């Protein structure tokens, strides 16, 4: 029995050894888990490094393609400029005429496109030289220290005893605005300006520097001044001589060059354009005439056509019955429709059909007005055509419903209507009442004018329908011509009924002063046959 205890002792030691052997197994598991975590971490780090390199590679590719895009754009621009220079060489076309034994060289100015114009040839023409009358700064009213003597030339400039030269290769390219950036009224945001009208006891005047008068190159009194809707450097003038002149603003309004002259007299009676509208794309000019004698009522001047004889076409339809067609304007909601108003009391909507220069007329109304329709315009936020008549009535015709949505009658004959460019409910009507020539209306308010202002005329008490107005781009100011040689400027916030300032800028009556879309500039026309460029400082 003494040996029995000795047998148990090794057993205990074996059990202790087994317990000691179990502990390393647990430690191995922990080490394995840690090793797995380390491997996963290393894998993630490696993946991050790979994806970082991938991002950097893609960024490099983006930078490369951006560089390639810039280079491609430059090559495209260079090619376009080469094309412009090539076309510009055709702008000066010479032909020799022998008259009374003397040789005359007639240089015909023409433009292959209203977009690409030659500066070299236009600078050689006498009409491109401005007549400086000194720089004076106006804050309120002022006058020119000297006058500009207009030089009368034909629509084709004649250079005697000199052979025609080719246009210089140096060109100034009038860059077109990209598609979608033309000033479509739909793209503008509505601004509530009506709440500001008549609220200020003092006007906010502008400083206008008048120093440049150009001969209009028209033989008779000017009639229209229209700025291009897509190209800030182009504008046109027309006159009673039936000629339409295309001009290009130089620099920041220091001068202007005459680019082309086109005879736009009507086919049968050889009448001048009564009013002109530039199509929203800036490629064509639409003119209206008279309905008397079966004459053409609408002409289209295509500025993209080079030869003068092929540039002007006439529409066959003659929806106006009689009298002068007083007004034409394109609709802000559709660049393929325009409206005309005439002395036959009618307002006609013209819609483009399939085909080149094919338009279908439709009478919106013929009996709302009892006298001549003097002005028409389209509202920006609704399909409403405004018309103002010599019968003292103002109508807003809803094209969609086919009825008059707005009706109002005042105490004086109406001569034009002009919607505000920023506040879509605000519009102006020109009347024949002295010192209250301009009336402001809210389309939402019936039988009520918001404000009225005007001016005293020294030379005549009668108000001419040839005097026109223009809104400033911000919609806060309005310019108006006058029977006097004065440009009147009105601040609609001013609570007085007189101009906020007046600028004496011509020798005779001012027909219109238009605000430039992009430059601080006023462009005016006058019966002194001059074009005025007035810089706003």
TrEMBL record:
Lineage top rank: taxon: Eukaryota
Pfam families, per the entry: WD40
Give the span(s) annotated as Disordered.
1-35, 80-189
Which stretches does UniProt call biased (Basic and acidic residues)? Answer: 101-111, 159-169
Q: Which UniProt keywords apply?
A: Ribonucleoprotein
GO cellular component terms given for this protein: ribonucleoprotein complex
Compositionally biased region (Acidic residues): 15-32
* Ranges of compositional bias, category Polar residues: 89-100, 113-138
Q: Which InterPro entries match?
A: WD40/YVTN_repeat-like_dom_sf, WD40_repeat_dom_sf, WD40_rpt
Q: Does the keyword Ribonucleoprotein apply?
A: yes
Tell me what this protein is called: U5 small nuclear ribonucleoprotein 40 kDa protein
Which species is the source of this protein? Sesamum indicum (Oriental sesame)
Q: Which gene encodes it?
A: LOC105158222
